[in-house]
């Protein structure tokens, strides 16, 4: 089915099941430990052996030699695969770094060997016995600030160069020129990358943990030079991804290579200390932002120059991305400098580009508002735009950013905020308030599903869509229940299997909108099939309470399917109107209150509010979970998360969860989420968009602005740890 | 993790004798530090002597009016003990500021004192580290050293001792009691228990390889107000950037020790004489001669400020 024009009134508008705050249907499995995650699928393949990886000890150079004799002789070892046994394996473009094979080392902890043994302990012990001799490149660069400095005069093709930024900025009445930095961030998802691999001839099955089943199937075809049909992936439960499981990764490749070598099933997980440097991270950024405005607060010029690290072929973290479309301003100069730095692969992490970009831009907006002597809420309202500033011929399909700000200001009681930085005190604590805007595109991707009515009257949905903890199972079940007129309990959803129709997968916050639209399309196809059987016009059919009703008659779905399941399959494809005529996006406003200890600088977030404009909300409970999780991640980015770079050795030093701190419960206070009522008919037949990435956008800047408001000390270098402003706190006796 | 042999000791002296009998033997108590380090092959004992069956898990009053804490008393139980909460609040507060509930349920008094540094380079076996592999160098210096020591370190090693419990015990003048393979016992003031790295950062305490900790003794209660203020990058479950253990008397005199700044609990009785002159005066004496790195020089200011906050709280 093609989605070529805005959605009209349709079956999904009934909103009997959709739109309801229903608990996750996979919740009981997860809370009782019954949901099988990749590494725990002991039953799927017989006689599983265990693989343990070895990572490179250098960041750039080549392997001179590897001595595996001792490892080979170690108890329980069945086989070893080393990178020297093969040429560098081909990769697809989604991956920036190569995953395995050859002598060349591109980054620290690059996978260079896998030891297979009877037990995990034996494999790990043997892996430690492999001796590697390296030759290190002396010309490698690991210092983003230094490389940026050297290359600032490079001619870079701007992302947007509209009007005449330099003159408009030079003649603006009020200006800001400030540089912000964001560190590398680690996805730090709970479940590590893990795969069980088993070959049958030249057919491979992978039980794995992956957000994008079809992308990875295609990547496997490239890497192993076999037809895509030879690969099956199965990934029904995923313990978090945030982008780090979008692509085929070394766990799957090593498990597959190992299984081929030993002729048995092999399971392998990336050990936590390897995951930060072996996989991907959100790239570091250095962002220079210049804003010019009139005395009245109208932005006339906006410049955003982002520098970020990448290995050859990647984009890094493009901080200028959200600036393209967020605020009005006729003169715009936006640049992304993806600089080659030999740190591990920087790649997508939750709201890639927007997250780091808004961490900077939304502090800049706060600084501008202060210079103008304006309420930062008001300043943002004045600079709202209903057309895409980067393509003024395009309208935003729906944009209610102003309502987000106004509603938030009212609910948060913004009027009673601390107005003069550093002036409100409660005992030992300084109290501050901050606001920030949120922007994230609302893409949609082709998505398919297969839906059946089964003889017992239940509905089964099959799609390779994944649930990375987001609630896909539940909203897909809700969609099918709504469309087929049954209760949620009789819908059975099977996800993450490459034998099912190809879906949009989980990424870019397109998953919920796209996959439910795909299920909608398949349900329409099924309804049509049923209509044909009954020889009636599909429009005349009404599905409700497990019955099909037409012309005063009714038939139970179970009766219709008594002779065998009735199955239909379809896929939704999104027409160009969606992106050519309109810009689809989601918006939000974050309000935060913090307390900062006036003497020690300890920061405690006290209250958080998010107001989101994201089209129709398919399930307010799962959507809220997405947003509060993202707000939590935003607090982490604001206050503590930072991959520490060793610029001599070229790696992230704090590569475990003791060193890379993410928020704990004690860091997270009251969180309130409000979704504006609304629907976006330009988005999908269900009029829905995503919220999972919107939720993190802008959060960190709201925290940063609140810390500034509390203390009067502006920190432009994330994370905002106390050492960065201690000397600007009130004097001690 | 390397393969190892394992035995359960029957008595403290037997445990010590077992350690003397085999090179590379180590005691295992809660295992919360040792097992992690074994998995990463930072510790590679050839033989483990499990001491969990030895009893030593009670807290008893001493004739001198203090408490004898068995080496195997768990951190959770120690923190919750009525007498500790009433008379040694600084210890109870330090304990609950450490690790997590689950870890404290396993962690023991003896093991806590002997936990090893959290220097990130110590944890990465690809990196040079004089503590882990003597003579290889120190990757932390010139690298990422935000968490590391500002005082007491050497050119060879600037790791900190990460224990919270030990900082409080130092303020309380605790004494460590041990037994060896011959059955000889000794009592070591905590002040003398941990060693500065000098040229031998891998030797962290005065314990002989076969010496087993049986108890930690707290002298009579000090009275006064007890504080443990631990500053870190998140609200819980993180090691200290700086911590201050303090016992403050009504007349303004008192004792303080710092955590997070040195290879051992950092206290200097002479600096305490400056208490009436305020935090800055105390810290400037206590941290005299500090040699912080660019990454961690903020700890000097932070120590001053944290003590200021504690003194302000003491004044009420
Ligand atoms: C994630 C995490 C977070 C943590 N956070 C903190 C924190 O914030 N603050 C803090 O203070 N600590 C923290 N810890 C450390 C924790 O307190 C220690 O791991 C624990 O106290 C060690 O005690 P244990 O009994 O488990 O020691 P074990 O691991 O069993 O032993 C540690 C060492 O002591 C030796 N040993 C044990 N008992 C004796 C004895 N009786 N005589 C002689 N030698 C002995 C062992 O041989 C070994 O070398 C954390 C640990 C983890 C894993
Ligand atoms: S500071 Fe000490 S523990 Fe850290 S790397 Fe240097 S020698 Fe090793």
From TrEMBL, chain A:
InterPro entries: Ald_Oxase/Xan_DH_a/b (IPR000674), Ald_Oxase/Xan_DH_a/b_sf (IPR036856), Ald_Oxase/xanthine_DH-like (IPR016208), AldOxase/xan_DH_MoCoBD1 (IPR008274), AldOxase/xan_DH_MoCoBD2 (IPR046867), AldOxase/xan_DH_Mopterin-bd_sf (IPR037165), PaoC-like (IPR049648). Residues 32-138 form the Aldehyde oxidase/xanthine dehydrogenase a/b hammerhead domain. Coiled coil: none annotated. GO terms for molecular function: iron ion binding; oxidoreductase activity. PANTHER family: ALDEHYDE OXIDOREDUCTASE MOLYBDENUM-BINDING SUBUNIT PAOC, XANTHINE DEHYDROGENASE. This is Xanthine dehydrogenase family protein molybdopterin-binding subunit. It comes from Vreelandella maris.
UniProtKB/TrEMBL annotation, chain B:
The keyword Acetylation does not apply. InterPro entries: CO_DH_flav_C, CO_DH_flav_C_dom_sf, Diverse_Substr_Oxidored, FAD-bd_PCMH, FAD-bd_PCMH-like_sf, FAD-bd_PCMH_sub1, FAD-bd_PCMH_sub2, Mopterin_DH_FAD-bd. It comes from the Bacteria. Gene3D superfamilies: 3.30.465.10, CO dehydrogenase flavoprotein, C-terminal domain (3.30.390.50), Uridine Diphospho-n-acetylenolpyruvylglucosamine Reductase, domain 2 (3.30.43.10). Keywords: FAD, Flavoprotein. The keyword Hydrolase does not apply. Transmembrane segments: none annotated. One of its GO terms (molecular function) is oxidoreductase activity. Residues 1-223 form the FAD-binding PCMH-type domain. This is Xanthine dehydrogenase family protein subunit M.
């Amino acid at each position: 089915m093609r989605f070529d024009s805005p959605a009209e009134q349709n079956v999904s508008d009934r909103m009997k099941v959709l739109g309801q705050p229903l608990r996750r249907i996979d919740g009981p499995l997860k809370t009782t430990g019954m949901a099988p995650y990749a590494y725990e699928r002991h039953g799927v393949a017989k006689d599983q052996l265990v693989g343990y990886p070895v990572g490179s000890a250098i960041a750039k150079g080549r392997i001179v030699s590897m001595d595996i004799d001792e490892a080979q002789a170690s108890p329980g070892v069945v086989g070893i695969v080393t990178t020297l046994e093969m040429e560098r394996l081909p990769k697809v473009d989604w991956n920036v770094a190569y995953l395995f094979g050859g002598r060349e080392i591109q980054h620290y902890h690059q996978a260079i060997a896998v030891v297979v043994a009877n037990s995990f302990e034996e494999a790990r012990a043997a892996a430690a016995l492999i001796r590697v001799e390296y030759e290190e490149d002396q010309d490698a660069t690991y210092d983003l600030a230094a490389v940026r400095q050297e290359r600032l005069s490079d001619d870079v093709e701007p992302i947007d160069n509209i009007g005449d930024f330099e003159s408009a900025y030079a003649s603006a009445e009020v200006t800001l020129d400030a540089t912000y930095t964001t560190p590398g961030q680690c996805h730090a998802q709970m479940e590590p990358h893990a795969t069980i691999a088993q070959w049958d001839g030249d057919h491979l099955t992978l039980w794995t943990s992956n957000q994008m089943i079809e992308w990875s199937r295609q990547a496997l075809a490239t890497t192993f030079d076999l037809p895509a049909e030879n690969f099956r992936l199965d990934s029904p439960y995923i313990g978090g991804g945030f982008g780090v499981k979008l692509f085929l990764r070394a766990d799957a490749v090593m498990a597959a290579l190992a299984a081929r070598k030993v002729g048995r099933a092999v399971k392998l997980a990336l050990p936590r200390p390897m995951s930060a440097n072996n996989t991907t991270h959100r790239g570091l950024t250095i962002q220079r932002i210049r804003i010019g405005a009139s005395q009245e607060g109208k932005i006339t010029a906006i410049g955003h120059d982002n520098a970020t690290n990448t290995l050859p072929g990647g984009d890094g973290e493009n901080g200028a991305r959200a600036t393209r479309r967020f605020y009005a301003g006729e003169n715009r100069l936006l640049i992304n400098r993806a600089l080659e730095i030999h740190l591990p692969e920087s790649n997508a992490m939750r709201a890639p580009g927007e997250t780091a970009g808004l961490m900077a831009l939304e502090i800049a907006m706060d600084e501008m508002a202060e210079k103008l002597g304006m309420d930062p809420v008001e300043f943002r309202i004045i600079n709202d735009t209903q057309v895409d500033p980067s393509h003024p011929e395009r309208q935003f399909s729906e944009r209610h950013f102003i309502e987000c700000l106004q509603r938030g200001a009212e609910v948060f009681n913004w009027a009673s905020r601390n107005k003069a930085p550093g002036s409100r005190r409660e005992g030992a604590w300084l109290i501050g308030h901050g606001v920030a805007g949120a922007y994230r595109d609302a893409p949609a991707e082709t998505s398919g599903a297969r839906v059946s009515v089964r003889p017992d009257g239940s509905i089964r949905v099959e799609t390779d869509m994944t649930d990375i903890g987001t609630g896909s199972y539940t909203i897909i079940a809700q969609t099918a229940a709504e469309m087929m007129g049954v209760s949620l309990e009789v819908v059975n959803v099977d996800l993450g299997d490459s034998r099912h129709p190809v879906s949009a997968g989980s990424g870019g916050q397109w998953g919920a909108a796209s996959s439910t639209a795909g299920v909608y399309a398949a349900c329409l196809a099924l309804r049509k099939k049923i209509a044909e059987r009954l020889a009636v016009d599909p429009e005349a059919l009404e599905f409700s309470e497990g019955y099909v009703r037409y012309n005063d008659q009714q038939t139970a779905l179970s009766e219709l399917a008594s002779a065998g399941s009735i199955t239909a399959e379809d896929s939704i494809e999104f027409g160009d109107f969606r992106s050519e005529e309109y810009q689809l996006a989601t918006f939000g406003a974050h309000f935060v209150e913090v307390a900062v200890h006036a003497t020690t600088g300890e920061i405690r977030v006290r209250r958080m509010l998010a107001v989101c404009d994201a089209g129709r909300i398919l399930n307010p409970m799962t959507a809220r979970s997405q947003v509060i999780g993202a707000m939590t991640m935003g607090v982490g980015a604001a206050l503590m998360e930072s991959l520490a770079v060793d610029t001599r050795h070229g790696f992230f030093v704090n590569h475990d969860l003791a060193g890379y701190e993410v928020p704990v419960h004690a860091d997270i206070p009251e969180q309130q989420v409000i979704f504006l009522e609304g629907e976006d008919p330009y988005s999908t037949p269900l009029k829905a968009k995503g919220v999972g990435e919107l939720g993190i956008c802008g959060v960190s800047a709201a925290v940063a602005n609140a810390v500034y408001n509390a203390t009067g000390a502006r920190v432009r270098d994330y994370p905002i740890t106390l050492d960065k402003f201690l000397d600007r706190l009130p004097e001690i006796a | 993790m390397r393969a190892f042999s394992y035995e359960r000791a029957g008595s403290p002296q037997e445990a010590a004798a077992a350690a003397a009998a085999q090179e590379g033997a180590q005691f295992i108590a809660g295992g919360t530090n040792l097992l992690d380090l074994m998995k990463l092959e930072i510790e590679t004992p050839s033989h483990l002597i499990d001491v969990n069956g030895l009893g030593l898990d009670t807290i008893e009053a001493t004739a001198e009016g203090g408490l004898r804490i068995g080496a195997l008393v768990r951190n959770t139980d120690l923190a919750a003990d009525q007498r500790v909460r009433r008379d040694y609040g600084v210890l109870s507060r330090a304990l609950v500021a450490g690790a997590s509930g689950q870890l404290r349920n396993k962690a023991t008094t003896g093991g806590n004192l002997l936990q090893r540094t959290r220097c990130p380079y110590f944890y990465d076996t690809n990196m040079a580290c004089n503590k882990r592999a003597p003579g290889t160098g120190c990757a932390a210096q010139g690298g990422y050293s935000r968490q590391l020591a500002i005082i007491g370190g050497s050119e060879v090693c600037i790791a900190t001792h990460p224990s919270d419990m030990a900082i409080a015990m130092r303020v309380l003048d605790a004494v460590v009691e041990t037994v060896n393979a011959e059955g000889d016992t000794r009592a070591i003031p905590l002040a003398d228990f941990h060693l500065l790295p000098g040229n031998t950062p891998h030797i962290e305490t005065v314990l002989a390889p076969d010496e087993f900790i049986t108890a930690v003794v707290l002298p009579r209660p000090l009275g006064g107000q007890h504080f443990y203020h631990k500053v870190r990058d998140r609200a819980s479950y993180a090691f200290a950037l700086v911590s201050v253990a303090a016992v403050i008397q009504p007349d303004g005199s008192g004792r303080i020790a710092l955590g997070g700044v040195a290879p051992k609990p950092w206290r200097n009785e002479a600096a305490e004489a400056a208490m009436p002159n305020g935090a800055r005066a105390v810290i400037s004496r206590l941290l005299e001669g500090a040699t912080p790195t660019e990454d961690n020089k903020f700890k000097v200011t932070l120590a001053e400020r944290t003590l200021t906050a504690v003194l302000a709280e003491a004044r009420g």
